[in-house]
Amino acid sequence: LKGGVTVHAWSDGAASAVGAASMPSGNSVSPETSPTAEGPRLSTGPPLSRKSTMLLDLSKNSMGCLGQKNPIRVFAIKVVFSKWFDRFVLTLIFFNCVFLAIDSKEPDFATTIRGKMVSGSENIFLVLFCGEMMFKIVALGFVWDRNSYLSDNWNRLDFVVVILGVVAALNLGNFSAIRTVRVLRPLRSINGFSGMRKLVECLLKSIPLLGDVLVLVSFLFFILGLIGVQMFSGLMDRRCATLDNPLDGCEQCGMNLNGSAAVFEGCAAECALPDIPRWSVDDDQLCGGPRDSVYPGRGTIRAAGYNCPVGAYCVKTDSPNFGITNFDNILSAWLTIFQCISLEGWTDVMYWVQDAVSPFTWVYFCTMIVLGSFFAINLALAVLYVSFVSERTEDDGEKEVEGENENESEEVFQAARLAEMYSMIEDAAVANAPAIGTPAVAGTGSSPILPVADLSARKPWIQEGYANVHDWVKAKGGEIEDVVMEDGIPTVLVPNAQKRFQRMCRALAISQRFSNLTMFLIIFNTVLMASEYYGMPKSQIAAYEIINYVVTVYFTLECIIKIIGLKPRGYVQDSFNIFDGTVVVISLIELAAADSGGSLSVLRSCRLLRILKLARSWPQLRKIISTILQTIPSMSSLAGMLMLFIFIFSLLGMQMFGYEFIFCDSYEVDGSKPTCPPGVSSANCPKRRDCYAPCTAAQVDGWITFGSGASGPCVDYRSAPTDGPTYLARLGESDQPRHNFDDIFWSFITIFQVLTGENWNEVMYDGMRTQGSPACVYFLLLVIIGNYIVLNLFLAILLDNFSDMDDDPAEVEEAAAAKLKEEEEAAKKKEEDAAERKQKAHELGVSGSIDYDSRGRAIKPGPVGFARVQAPLKWLVQHKTFDNIIIVLILISSGLLAIDGPTVDPESTMAEVLGILDTIFVVIFTVEAALKITALGPKKYITNSWNMLDFGIVIIGLISSMISAFASGTGGMGALRSLRAFRALRPLRVAARSEGMKVVVSALFQAVPAIGNVALVCILFYLIFGILGLNLFMGKMHRCMDVGGGDVIYPFALGLDETVATREWCKAGTHLVGCLATSKAVFYSAGGEAGWDWVKTNDTSTVINADYNREEMYGGEWKVTASEATAAVLRTTGVEQAEMKLRYGWLASAFHAPKGSAENISVAGAFTSYCEPHFLETSWDLPEFYDFDNIGNSMLILFETATLEMWLGVMYHSVDAVGEGFHPRHNYNPAACVFYVIFIIIGAFFVMNLFVGVTIDKFNEMKEQAA
Predict the structure, then answer these.
(1) In Å, how far are 296, 569, 617, 749 from 563, measured between CA atoms?
(2) Burial class (CB in 10 A: 0-12, 13-18, 19+), 265
(3) pLDDT-derived band of residue 1207, with 50, 70 and 90 as boundaries?
(4) Residue 1154 phi/psi, 5° resolution?
(5) Are 284 and 355 within 8 A, CB to CB?
(6) Is 427 or 46 the better-scoring residue by pLDDT?
(7) Is pTM beyond 0.85 here?
(8) Residue 149 and residue 58: Cα distance in Å, rounded?
């Protein structure tokens, strides 16, 4: 500042802060820099930063007692306004995030080393963040002044987090829940990145418009919610069920079909429901009737919804999805409507309501989807797109675009060098201009005029008699680039051998033939990799490996030649060269890893990325790849914000739902729950507790079989000998959903799943089951912020960059030239038409007589001959009323087509009437076409594509009607009769009569070429990921199936060790499953079901558990004996025994089985089973709908994944995949999730949305042309 006060730049460090903070108030300031209410204004130089403004406008006193010259405050200002302070705080936040990520809610986590580290670090971070807060409060002041600590929103957030952390650390009560607020601390990192901060500002600017959208959506929710409550309240909690305990003589009640409650055989009139009826409920079937209140009959009134089958009644249970999905109150209705509008599971809800209420409720749901999902929700995308484009427009002046240098041809290179040589000659001439020639005129910029002799001296090739400079340089043994200037005269320096070799490599590297050979090998290598399949012969595999070595050596040599020829600096100027060099290095590492048997052999998939080099010669591919690459910088900040968003919600999810998603639903036993029994140490129980069901003292030491088929041994558990007994039956491992928040990795995958929308509602249901209904708020915020705002901003950026693709100057110039040519042709055609009309008029005047009126004026002759007929027809077909009548007839015809269908009896009167009406409409439309052809003329008629569409539909209608009339009853005309299906095109004719529909349909058809280009690029990316899928999962998706039940076997449920479940064990065919004292076991059975025999030695007891109203069986024992063939396998020893165990898994018990049981059974060849034994028939099969065993199936499953439907099952199977010949193991390879996450980001979020961009761009273009 002028006037004696010095404020240093911020880069000067803390000293500048002190100087500014202690600025004396009495110093004079010049008018140009006079301070205002906003602080000093500098007349020159860059604007002050926010920190500078704050520093010049600090409060006089901090905390009411620390003035600006107080040493404590001066020190605090030095610290707070130092650039290293912010860096230290960001580093602190980073390490705090690391410790938050390794935190866990698993049982006994606090006693582990990792748990102790996390617990200790929390206090350290709390102290450091408290120190940061105190420094800022001392330096800035606390609350009252404009630049005080609490005037900043991020400081307010941090203040709340720190204070709540202090309250939790003081142990003043049960405040552990408020510690979850600390997960918001990573939000502060946004302030340290300008790109993320701008995106946040963009979102904040869009809040008013988003608020308008929110009001509209809220109004829609309010209306739909009220309608839903009024229509469906209390009607979604009934399901079909059969009575398991009818009274004696009432077993046939409910079996009558006539709808009456009269007495019939097997059901007495006095039959009634038991005092405590026990129903077997069909959980999947909601119903409207008959209600159980009409028992023993079925009532006389048929319900409007689904009527349960004979023998079943509609009984009251919970509403679907654990009582969550219903319209019983306005909040539940809103939650159900939100789920439907998200398009996830909405059809299930609609079908449930149709079954419970009426089939016509589809009107409510279709209206909800159209208004809510297709219209209101997509307004958020429009708002964000407008906000982002406006924000980007403001920043366009600050952006710099850097071009990419491609390898030039040798001719272009030599021409450039020649131009440089001539430039050097001119420079030398200018340098010597004062000594010779005529001086240049000052200010004109013209070159001096040299004498002819001097010019020839500076072109020695002319003096030496060469025709051009190339011949002269070649005769000297050099090239153009070897020409140097010595005393202003060109001279050739003969290159040495090393330089000649380098130039030879350069000529080879940039030659077109070498480039073509490289492209051929890239395509050949890609085709070769795509042709791999599971089960290839060893000779083919060996041949592929040899070709792989040869191709890798070629690309390595290519890379070396380019580096030598172009030199390292020139080589790295081309981004494709950097990309190719990286692929070469990865390929060499892959070969070394493959030779050593390492797991890095999967890197061979990186070789196929070379196919992207086709972009050099494929303009459409280059354009789309450039669009994606141009999008990446814009996306980097958004990606960072998205990752931060996912990270915060992952941490919050771990705090709320960690180790909570553990259920026992699959056993269908009321009262069962995951637990660690009394007397069993927590260390001996799995982290995700096993499922136990209560049992009684009479059932101890026996196997209980419940009505659902689940079974387990009843055991007396006691914490101490003096404690009371706890009787529990272990059912098996608990149900552990793949979507969970148990650690940071699976929490991240679960959040990503929710953002894709696939089965997000199931995650919400599990959260509400464990933490109550308020947990839905977490998932609603996750979907609204993540899916409808952040991901929509992602799409907005992509569409904005895609729209810039059409701004290529060459393409714009080409389009302008094409448009000019089109206009010239139109003008020429117009002149020709005018001349033709003039000629016709002249001929008419000559051949016809001219009449005169009473005043002697010539009367214009009217049309004669065919023109006399054509004129009124033209007036008719071009009249608006004629078009309206045709539109009405088309709509009526379309309605009749909708009525006609397979359910209409061909012999019925309705079918006959529909056929007659269809013939009438065909005749009418044929007459219409004939009138238009006559009125407009055939040539003019066929030039209109819409007329051709009409004519084609009419011709198809005529053919189908003729076939129906003359080939009725014949079977040989079935194929031709199928032409009648083309009548469905008839509604398209309406588009020809509506300008708005014309634009839409034309945009769709004209977008086909561009969509085709995008489709080819899409296939290219699918090919890349498809080959990667082959390398990762080929041959690994096979699994062992239960032939009888059709389900995948679960080894632990059979008492089978996972390592034994192999292809050989599964293909052994038949196995015996029995129950030992405390666990199940499975045995190899030689000869199928003849391999074992059993006899029941102890009867089974059946009791009714009054507490849970269920039937339980226990106490049975069976003596099981092996056949001689099976016993021979069991008694093998030594190497043979190890081989038998490996091949057949002849006996494998769960970890609960007593030691030595396997050896005892193998010796005796018999054992006692405490549950009824049964045979298990197994087969080694692939999944029915997906695998990665060839490129076709691989690309098909990737397409399904890109649609974001049903991809979770494939991903989880890939996670479980072990290797060829091994049954899947639960979460064997979690890293496989990364493959699907990356593919969805590229294949779904990027590539698939390019189709949207192409269509929107073409529609906007057509709309502008129509305007």
Answers:
(1) 90, 9, 22, 42
(2) exposed
(3) very high
(4) -65, 145
(5) no
(6) 427
(7) no
(8) 11
Query: Using an 8 Å Cβ cutoff, are 631 and 798 in contact?
Result: yes
* Of the ranges 180-189, 313-322, 577-586, 1162-1171, the best mean pLDDT one: 313-322
What is the DSSP annotation of 75-100?
Answer: HHHHHHTSHHHHHHHHHHHHHHHHHH
Tokens 């297709």 sit on residue: 374
Instruction: Tell me the average pLDDT across 519-530.
Output: 86
* Beta-ladder partners of 160: none
User: Is 852 or 1018 the better-scoring residue by pLDDT?
Assistant: 1018
Nearest alpha carbon to residue 356 among 241, 233, 236: 236
Q: Using CA atoms, how far apart are residues 190 and 644, in angstroms rounded to an integer? A: 9
DSSP state of 179: G
Q: What is the pLDDT of residues 922-937, one digit of tens each?
A: 888 888 888 888 887 8
- Quick one: which of 772, 796, 406 has its CA closest to 638? 796
Measured CA to CA in angstroms, residue 1010 lies from 806, 1050, 1137 at distances of 12, 49, 65
333 contacts 227 by C-beta, under 8 angstroms: no
pLDDT at 354: 94
State how far the Cα of 1159 lies from the Cα of 1165, in Å rounded to an integer: 10
Judged by DSSP in three states, 438 sits in strand
The CB density around residue 228, as the number of other CB atoms within 10 Å, is: 25
Residue type present at position 506: R
* List of E strands, 866-1022: none
Residue with tokens 């090919």: 1023
| Closest CA relative to residue 571, chosen from 504, 632, 505, 478 | 505
Token pair 């091949």 in the structure block, residue: 1143
CA dist., res. 314 & res. 309, Å (int): 10
* Nearest CA among 929, 925, 961, 927 for reference residue 948: 929
C-alpha dihedral (911, 916, 920, 925), degrees to nearest 10:
40
Q: Give the helix, strand, coil percentages of the chain, each rounded to 5.
A: 60, 10, 30
Helix (H, G, I), strand (E, B) or coil at 1169: strand
CA dihedral 435, 441, 447, 449 (to 10 degrees): -60
Q: Mean pLDDT check: name the lowest of 644-648, 820-824, 894-898.
A: 820-824
- Asked if 1126 and 1085 touch (Cβ cutoff 8 Å), the reply is yes
Pairwise CA distance, residues 371 & 387, whole Å: 23
Round to whole Å and give the CA distance between 627 and 1247: 11
**DSSP H or E run through 616:** none
Pairing of strands 279-286, 1110-1114: unpaired
Instruction: With beta carbons less than 8 A apart as the criterion, state whether 573 and 403 touch.
Output: no
* C-alpha distance across the termini of the chain, in Å: 58
The answer to whether residues 365 and 340 touch, using CB atoms and an 8 Å cutoff, is yes
Residue 442 and residue 433: Cα distance in Å, rounded? 13
Lowest mean pLDDT among 62-76, 93-107, 957-971, 1170-1184: 957-971
Strands 726-732 and 691-694: antiparallel
Q: What is the DSSP annotation of 327-374? A: -SSHHHHHHHHHHHHTTSSHHHHHHHHHHHT-GGGHHHHHHHIIIIII
Task: Name the pairing type of β-strands 1039-1042 and 858-859.
Answer: unpaired
pLDDT at position 48 over 60: no
Q: pLDDT of 440-483, one tens digit each?
A: 443 444 444 444 445 455 667 766 667 667 667 666 666 666 67
Mean pLDDT confidence for 797-822: 59
Cβ atoms within 10 Å of 828's Cβ, excluding its own: 10
- Beta carbons within 8 Å of 1215's beta carbon, 6+ residues apart: 738, 1227, 1228, 1229, 1230, 1232, 1233
